Amino acid sequence: MKKGHYISLLVLLCVLFSAVIISVAFTKKAGDNSLKPTVVEPPAPVLVESNRDTVEKVHYEFKLIREFNWNNGIDSLHISGCYDDFDADLIDSATFEGECPPPMGPDGLMVNSSGDIYIFDLDQAGEGWGAKLYDPYGKLLKYAPGGRPIGFDAEGNVYLFDRVYDGQLNLIKTYMLPQNLETAIKGNVTDKGMLIFVSGSSIYECDPYSPNLVKDTKLLKSDPKLAELWKTIQCNIIGDNNAPLEILYKKRSSDKTHSINALIGESIVNQESCNHYPDLSFLSVDERGDSYWLYNPYSNYNSLPGRWRFNYYYIGIFNADNKMISKIPHSINLASLIEFPNGIDKYLYIVQDTGNVYEITGDAKKAQLIEWKRKKED
Fold first, then answer.
1. SS3 string of the chain?
2. In DSSP terms, which residues pair with 198 in a beta bridge?
3. CA 9 to CA 165: how far, in whole Å?
4. Which tens digit of pLDDT belongs to each residue from 20-65?
5. Which of 34, 128, 164, 208 could form a disulfide with 121 if both were Cys (CB 3.0 to 4.6 A apart)?
6. Tens digits of residue pLDDT in 98-118
Protein backbone atom coordinates (compact mmCIF):
# COMPACT_ATOMS: atom_id res chain seq x y z
CA MET A 1 0.00 0.00 0.00
CA LYS A 2 1.29 3.43 -0.87
CA LYS A 3 2.28 5.96 1.74
CA GLY A 4 -0.60 8.27 0.78
CA HIS A 5 -3.05 5.44 1.37
CA TYR A 6 -1.62 4.92 4.88
CA ILE A 7 -2.16 8.58 5.72
CA SER A 8 -5.73 8.54 4.40
CA LEU A 9 -6.50 5.45 6.47
CA LEU A 10 -5.08 7.01 9.64
CA VAL A 11 -7.13 10.18 9.14
CA LEU A 12 -10.25 8.09 8.63
CA LEU A 13 -9.59 6.12 11.85
CA CYS A 14 -9.04 9.33 13.84
CA VAL A 15 -12.32 10.77 12.58
CA LEU A 16 -14.19 7.59 13.51
CA PHE A 17 -12.54 7.50 16.96
CA SER A 18 -13.47 11.14 17.60
CA ALA A 19 -17.05 10.44 16.63
CA VAL A 20 -17.25 7.62 19.15
CA ILE A 21 -15.89 9.86 21.91
CA ILE A 22 -18.35 12.62 21.08
CA SER A 23 -21.28 10.20 21.01
CA VAL A 24 -20.32 8.93 24.48
CA ALA A 25 -19.71 12.35 25.98
CA PHE A 26 -22.94 13.98 24.82
CA THR A 27 -26.61 13.10 24.73
CA LYS A 28 -29.36 14.65 22.71
CA LYS A 29 -32.82 15.14 24.17
CA ALA A 30 -35.95 14.59 22.07
CA GLY A 31 -37.19 17.83 20.58
CA ASP A 32 -33.96 19.62 21.50
CA ASN A 33 -31.50 20.54 18.79
CA SER A 34 -28.69 21.35 21.25
CA LEU A 35 -26.13 18.91 22.54
CA LYS A 36 -25.64 18.73 26.32
CA PRO A 37 -22.87 17.01 28.30
CA THR A 38 -24.26 14.14 30.35
CA VAL A 39 -22.10 15.17 33.33
CA VAL A 40 -24.12 18.36 33.83
CA GLU A 41 -27.05 16.44 35.28
CA PRO A 42 -26.18 14.39 38.43
CA PRO A 43 -27.31 10.77 38.40
CA ALA A 44 -30.49 9.96 40.27
CA PRO A 45 -29.85 8.32 43.67
CA VAL A 46 -30.34 4.59 43.23
CA LEU A 47 -29.42 1.44 45.12
CA VAL A 48 -26.05 0.20 43.81
CA GLU A 49 -25.66 -3.44 44.74
CA SER A 50 -22.11 -3.70 43.36
CA ASN A 51 -20.75 -1.37 46.06
CA ARG A 52 -21.69 -3.87 48.75
CA ASP A 53 -19.33 -6.43 47.28
CA THR A 54 -16.35 -4.13 46.88
CA VAL A 55 -16.25 -2.51 50.35
CA GLU A 56 -14.83 -4.44 53.28
CA LYS A 57 -17.37 -4.45 56.11
CA VAL A 58 -16.89 -4.36 59.87
CA HIS A 59 -19.28 -5.67 62.50
CA TYR A 60 -20.45 -4.51 65.91
CA GLU A 61 -21.64 -6.55 68.87
CA PHE A 62 -24.33 -5.24 71.23
CA LYS A 63 -23.73 -5.18 74.98
CA LEU A 64 -26.00 -3.76 77.68
CA ILE A 65 -23.64 -2.46 80.36
CA ARG A 66 -26.31 -1.47 82.88
CA GLU A 67 -29.63 0.25 83.50
CA PHE A 68 -30.31 3.40 85.51
CA ASN A 69 -33.38 4.60 87.34
CA TRP A 70 -34.38 8.19 86.80
CA ASN A 71 -34.15 10.70 89.70
CA ASN A 72 -33.45 8.06 92.33
CA GLY A 73 -30.27 9.05 94.15
CA ILE A 74 -26.65 9.48 93.24
CA ASP A 75 -26.38 6.21 91.29
CA SER A 76 -29.25 7.11 89.00
CA LEU A 77 -29.53 9.59 86.13
CA HIS A 78 -31.52 12.78 86.41
CA ILE A 79 -33.99 14.68 84.31
CA SER A 80 -36.09 17.78 84.86
CA GLY A 81 -39.07 19.37 83.18
CA CYS A 82 -42.79 18.76 83.11
CA TYR A 83 -42.44 15.04 83.58
CA ASP A 84 -41.01 14.65 87.08
CA ASP A 85 -43.75 12.15 87.91
CA PHE A 86 -42.71 10.08 84.84
CA ASP A 87 -46.15 9.13 83.70
CA ALA A 88 -45.29 6.82 80.81
CA ASP A 89 -48.54 7.44 78.96
CA LEU A 90 -48.10 11.18 79.30
CA ILE A 91 -44.56 11.10 77.92
CA ASP A 92 -45.38 8.77 75.04
CA SER A 93 -48.22 11.01 73.90
CA ALA A 94 -46.55 14.33 74.62
CA THR A 95 -45.69 16.67 71.77
CA PHE A 96 -43.54 19.09 73.80
CA GLU A 97 -45.76 21.94 72.61
CA GLY A 98 -47.57 24.71 74.43
CA GLU A 99 -46.54 25.49 78.00
CA CYS A 100 -44.57 22.30 78.60
CA PRO A 101 -40.92 22.65 77.50
CA PRO A 102 -38.67 19.72 76.61
CA PRO A 103 -37.09 18.10 79.66
CA MET A 104 -33.41 18.56 80.45
CA GLY A 105 -31.16 15.61 81.16
CA PRO A 106 -27.50 14.55 81.32
CA ASP A 107 -24.98 16.87 79.67
CA GLY A 108 -22.94 14.22 77.93
CA LEU A 109 -21.07 10.93 77.79
CA MET A 110 -17.38 10.10 77.30
CA VAL A 111 -15.36 6.87 77.47
CA ASN A 112 -11.56 6.60 77.59
CA SER A 113 -9.40 3.99 75.86
CA SER A 114 -9.38 1.82 79.02
CA GLY A 115 -13.16 1.59 78.99
CA ASP A 116 -13.72 3.92 81.97
CA ILE A 117 -17.06 5.67 81.52
CA TYR A 118 -17.83 9.30 82.36
CA ILE A 119 -21.45 10.43 82.47
CA PHE A 120 -22.09 14.13 82.99
CA ASP A 121 -25.39 14.00 84.78
CA LEU A 122 -27.87 16.79 85.38
CA ASP A 123 -27.09 18.38 88.73
CA GLN A 124 -30.68 18.49 89.92
CA ALA A 125 -31.12 19.86 93.47
CA GLY A 126 -27.66 18.58 94.35
CA GLU A 127 -28.66 14.95 93.86
CA GLY A 128 -27.18 14.19 90.48
CA TRP A 129 -23.98 16.15 90.93
CA GLY A 130 -22.51 16.14 87.46
CA ALA A 131 -19.35 14.28 86.51
CA LYS A 132 -19.63 10.59 87.37
CA LEU A 133 -16.92 7.98 86.86
CA TYR A 134 -17.97 4.36 86.22
CA ASP A 135 -15.81 1.32 85.63
CA PRO A 136 -16.22 -0.61 82.34
CA TYR A 137 -18.95 -2.73 83.96
CA GLY A 138 -21.06 0.25 85.05
CA LYS A 139 -20.10 0.47 88.73
CA LEU A 140 -20.08 4.01 90.11
CA LEU A 141 -16.60 4.87 91.41
CA LYS A 142 -16.66 8.61 92.03
CA TYR A 143 -18.65 11.78 91.38
CA ALA A 144 -17.83 15.48 91.32
CA PRO A 145 -19.37 18.76 90.14
CA GLY A 146 -19.80 18.59 86.39
CA GLY A 147 -20.98 20.35 83.28
CA ARG A 148 -20.70 20.00 79.52
CA PRO A 149 -17.76 17.79 78.48
CA ILE A 150 -15.29 18.53 75.67
CA GLY A 151 -12.84 15.61 75.58
CA PHE A 152 -9.64 13.94 76.80
CA ASP A 153 -5.98 14.85 76.36
CA ALA A 154 -3.20 12.29 75.88
CA GLU A 155 -2.81 11.94 79.67
CA GLY A 156 -6.45 11.01 80.11
CA ASN A 157 -7.39 14.31 81.74
CA VAL A 158 -11.06 15.21 81.39
CA TYR A 159 -11.97 18.66 80.02
CA LEU A 160 -15.28 20.42 80.56
CA PHE A 161 -16.38 23.88 79.47
CA ASP A 162 -15.21 25.41 82.76
CA ARG A 163 -12.70 23.00 84.35
CA VAL A 164 -10.33 20.11 83.89
CA TYR A 165 -10.10 16.95 86.01
CA ASP A 166 -7.59 14.15 86.00
CA GLY A 167 -8.85 10.69 85.06
CA GLN A 168 -10.04 10.06 88.63
CA LEU A 169 -12.09 13.29 88.74
CA ASN A 170 -9.60 15.15 90.91
CA LEU A 171 -9.81 18.84 90.05
CA ILE A 172 -6.75 20.24 88.24
CA LYS A 173 -8.01 23.76 87.58
CA THR A 174 -10.97 25.87 86.54
CA TYR A 175 -11.14 28.47 83.77
CA MET A 176 -13.57 30.68 81.91
CA LEU A 177 -14.15 30.60 78.18
CA PRO A 178 -14.98 33.74 76.16
CA GLN A 179 -18.70 34.31 75.86
CA ASN A 180 -18.69 33.77 72.11
CA LEU A 181 -17.52 30.19 72.70
CA GLU A 182 -19.76 29.27 75.63
CA THR A 183 -22.51 28.18 73.28
CA ALA A 184 -20.16 26.33 70.92
CA ILE A 185 -21.03 22.65 70.78
CA LYS A 186 -18.29 21.56 68.41
CA GLY A 187 -15.25 21.22 70.65
CA ASN A 188 -12.15 19.07 70.74
CA VAL A 189 -9.10 18.58 72.99
CA THR A 190 -5.62 18.05 71.55
CA ASP A 191 -3.13 15.59 73.02
CA LYS A 192 -1.39 18.52 74.75
CA GLY A 193 -4.60 19.85 76.30
CA MET A 194 -5.40 22.72 73.94
CA LEU A 195 -9.11 23.37 73.47
CA ILE A 196 -10.32 23.68 69.88
CA PHE A 197 -13.75 24.99 68.90
CA VAL A 198 -15.68 25.67 65.73
CA SER A 199 -17.75 28.84 65.98
CA GLY A 200 -19.39 30.00 62.79
CA SER A 201 -16.81 29.71 60.01
CA SER A 202 -13.81 30.13 62.34
CA ILE A 203 -11.70 27.68 64.34
CA TYR A 204 -10.47 28.82 67.77
CA GLU A 205 -7.60 27.43 69.86
CA CYS A 206 -7.66 28.12 73.61
CA ASP A 207 -4.98 27.44 76.23
CA PRO A 208 -6.59 26.56 79.60
CA TYR A 209 -3.18 26.44 81.31
CA SER A 210 -1.88 29.86 80.27
CA PRO A 211 -1.56 32.36 83.16
CA ASN A 212 -2.30 35.19 80.74
CA LEU A 213 -5.98 36.02 81.11
CA VAL A 214 -7.77 38.57 78.95
CA LYS A 215 -10.87 40.70 79.12
CA ASP A 216 -13.81 39.23 77.27
CA THR A 217 -14.46 41.49 74.28
CA LYS A 218 -18.17 40.71 74.20
CA LEU A 219 -18.62 41.31 77.92
CA LEU A 220 -16.47 44.42 77.72
CA LYS A 221 -19.07 46.08 75.52
CA SER A 222 -22.03 45.24 77.75
CA ASP A 223 -20.45 45.49 81.23
CA PRO A 224 -16.86 46.83 81.42
CA LYS A 225 -16.64 46.48 85.22
CA LEU A 226 -17.67 42.83 85.10
CA ALA A 227 -15.24 42.18 82.26
CA GLU A 228 -12.45 43.43 84.52
CA LEU A 229 -13.40 40.85 87.17
CA TRP A 230 -14.30 37.90 84.94
CA LYS A 231 -11.26 37.47 82.75
CA THR A 232 -11.12 34.57 80.33
CA ILE A 233 -8.47 32.29 78.91
CA GLN A 234 -7.00 33.53 75.66
CA CYS A 235 -8.37 32.06 72.43
CA ASN A 236 -6.98 32.69 68.96
CA ILE A 237 -8.26 31.93 65.49
CA ILE A 238 -6.21 29.28 63.71
CA GLY A 239 -6.13 28.03 60.14
CA ASP A 240 -7.53 24.75 58.93
CA ASN A 241 -4.03 23.35 58.46
CA ASN A 242 -3.43 23.61 62.24
CA ALA A 243 -6.72 22.03 63.29
CA PRO A 244 -7.32 18.37 64.26
CA LEU A 245 -8.98 16.16 61.67
CA GLU A 246 -12.16 15.83 63.72
CA ILE A 247 -12.54 19.60 63.92
CA LEU A 248 -12.12 19.86 60.14
CA TYR A 249 -14.87 17.28 59.69
CA LYS A 250 -17.11 19.23 62.06
CA LYS A 251 -16.49 22.51 60.29
CA ARG A 252 -16.99 21.13 56.79
CA SER A 253 -20.01 19.00 57.65
CA SER A 254 -21.75 22.00 59.23
CA ASP A 255 -21.74 23.54 55.75
CA LYS A 256 -24.50 21.55 54.07
CA THR A 257 -23.16 22.54 50.65
CA HIS A 258 -19.73 21.01 51.31
CA SER A 259 -18.84 17.98 49.20
CA ILE A 260 -18.32 15.73 52.25
CA ASN A 261 -22.06 15.76 52.93
CA ALA A 262 -22.80 14.80 49.31
CA LEU A 263 -20.26 11.96 49.38
CA ILE A 264 -21.59 10.50 52.62
CA GLY A 265 -25.17 10.98 51.47
CA GLU A 266 -24.48 9.18 48.21
CA SER A 267 -22.89 6.29 50.09
CA ILE A 268 -26.00 5.98 52.27
CA VAL A 269 -28.30 6.05 49.25
CA ASN A 270 -26.24 3.27 47.70
CA GLN A 271 -26.77 1.08 50.76
CA GLU A 272 -30.32 1.92 51.79
CA SER A 273 -33.66 1.46 50.07
CA CYS A 274 -34.26 5.18 49.72
CA ASN A 275 -34.32 7.47 46.72
CA HIS A 276 -33.25 10.73 48.36
CA TYR A 277 -30.33 12.07 50.36
CA PRO A 278 -30.95 11.73 54.12
CA ASP A 279 -30.42 14.20 56.95
CA LEU A 280 -26.86 13.91 58.25
CA SER A 281 -25.05 14.84 61.45
CA PHE A 282 -21.31 14.26 61.86
CA LEU A 283 -20.31 12.53 65.11
CA SER A 284 -16.61 11.67 65.11
CA VAL A 285 -13.62 10.28 63.24
CA ASP A 286 -11.39 7.57 64.73
CA GLU A 287 -7.67 6.87 64.48
CA ARG A 288 -8.20 4.68 61.39
CA GLY A 289 -9.73 7.60 59.56
CA ASP A 290 -13.22 6.03 59.66
CA SER A 291 -15.93 8.64 60.18
CA TYR A 292 -19.18 8.23 62.12
CA TRP A 293 -22.42 9.93 61.12
CA LEU A 294 -25.96 9.98 62.48
CA TYR A 295 -28.56 9.75 59.73
CA ASN A 296 -32.21 9.09 59.12
CA PRO A 297 -32.97 7.48 55.73
CA TYR A 298 -36.67 8.34 56.12
CA SER A 299 -36.20 11.94 57.21
CA ASN A 300 -37.89 13.39 54.12
CA TYR A 301 -41.02 11.28 54.41
CA ASN A 302 -43.13 14.21 55.62
CA SER A 303 -46.31 12.15 55.59
CA LEU A 304 -45.09 10.05 58.52
CA PRO A 305 -46.10 11.07 62.05
CA GLY A 306 -43.46 13.35 63.56
CA ARG A 307 -42.36 11.10 66.41
CA TRP A 308 -42.59 7.87 64.45
CA ARG A 309 -40.06 8.79 61.79
CA PHE A 310 -37.42 9.67 64.41
CA ASN A 311 -37.16 5.99 65.38
CA TYR A 312 -35.22 5.23 62.20
CA TYR A 313 -31.92 6.88 63.01
CA TYR A 314 -28.71 4.96 62.39
CA ILE A 315 -25.06 5.50 63.18
CA GLY A 316 -23.26 4.96 59.89
CA ILE A 317 -19.54 4.13 59.81
CA PHE A 318 -17.62 5.15 56.68
CA ASN A 319 -14.06 4.41 55.59
CA ALA A 320 -11.54 6.97 54.36
CA ASP A 321 -13.07 6.67 50.86
CA ASN A 322 -16.46 7.69 52.33
CA LYS A 323 -17.95 4.24 51.68
CA MET A 324 -20.25 2.77 54.32
CA ILE A 325 -18.65 -0.17 56.12
CA SER A 326 -21.20 -0.67 58.91
CA LYS A 327 -24.26 0.81 60.57
CA ILE A 328 -25.75 0.66 64.06
CA PRO A 329 -29.43 1.25 64.89
CA HIS A 330 -29.88 4.21 67.23
CA SER A 331 -33.03 4.19 69.31
CA ILE A 332 -34.66 7.60 69.48
CA ASN A 333 -36.79 7.77 72.59
CA LEU A 334 -37.00 9.67 75.86
CA ALA A 335 -33.27 9.93 76.59
CA SER A 336 -32.40 11.03 73.08
CA LEU A 337 -35.36 13.37 72.73
CA ILE A 338 -34.08 15.51 75.59
CA GLU A 339 -33.51 18.95 74.05
CA PHE A 340 -34.17 17.37 70.65
CA PRO A 341 -32.70 17.73 68.07
CA ASN A 342 -29.48 19.15 69.54
CA GLY A 343 -29.47 16.56 72.30
CA ILE A 344 -29.08 13.48 70.13
CA ASP A 345 -25.30 13.34 69.86
CA LYS A 346 -24.81 14.18 73.55
CA TYR A 347 -25.65 10.55 74.32
CA LEU A 348 -23.28 9.01 71.77
CA TYR A 349 -19.52 8.59 72.09
CA ILE A 350 -16.98 6.92 69.81
CA VAL A 351 -13.70 5.75 71.34
CA GLN A 352 -10.93 6.94 69.03
CA ASP A 353 -8.55 3.99 69.14
CA THR A 354 -11.02 1.10 69.29
CA GLY A 355 -13.96 2.42 67.28
CA ASN A 356 -16.36 1.16 69.97
CA VAL A 357 -19.61 3.12 70.20
CA TYR A 358 -21.34 3.94 73.49
CA GLU A 359 -24.80 5.37 73.94
CA ILE A 360 -27.33 6.27 76.60
CA THR A 361 -30.89 5.43 75.70
CA GLY A 362 -34.01 4.34 77.56
CA ASP A 363 -37.66 5.06 78.17
CA ALA A 364 -39.85 6.79 80.74
CA LYS A 365 -38.97 4.29 83.44
CA LYS A 366 -35.27 3.53 82.98
CA ALA A 367 -32.17 4.61 81.10
CA GLN A 368 -29.71 2.18 79.54
CA LEU A 369 -25.97 2.40 78.96
CA ILE A 370 -25.05 0.42 75.84
CA GLU A 371 -21.77 -0.53 74.20
CA TRP A 372 -21.46 -1.48 70.55
CA LYS A 373 -18.13 -3.28 70.35
CA ARG A 374 -16.28 -3.23 67.07
CA LYS A 375 -15.10 -6.71 66.14
CA LYS A 376 -11.44 -7.00 65.26
CA GLU A 377 -10.77 -7.16 61.55
CA ASP A 378 -9.27 -10.41 60.25
1. CCHHHHHHHHHHHHHHHHHHHHHHHEECCCCCCCCEEHHHCCCCCCCCCHHHHHCCCCCEEEEEEEEEEECCCCCCECCECCCCCCCHHHHHHCCCCCCCCCCECCCEEEECCCCCEEEECCCCCCCCCCEEEECCCCCEEEEECCCCEEEECCCCCEEECCEEECCCCCEEEECCCCHHHHCCCEEEECCCCCEEEEECCEEEEECCCCCCEECCHHHHHHCHHHHHHCCEECEEEECHHHCCHHHHHHHHHHCCCCHHHHHHHHHHHCCCCCCCCCEEEEEEECCCCCEEEEEECCCCCCCCCHHHHHHHCEEEEECCCCCEEEEEECCCCHHHHCCCCCCHHHHEEECCCCCCEEEEEECCCEEEEEEEEECCCC
2. 186, 203
3. 80
4. 333 333 333 334 433 333 232 333 333 233 334 457 889 999 999 9
5. 128
6. 455 556 778 899 999 999 999
Q: Which amino acid is at 288?
A: R
* Residue 274 pLDDT exceeds 90: no
**Nearest to residue 203, comparing CAs of 167, 233, 175, 240?**
240
Q: pTM for the complete prediction?
A: 0.77
| C-alpha torsion 253→257→262→264, nearest 10 | 10
pLDDT band, very low/low/confident/very high, at 313 (cuts 50, 70, 90): confident
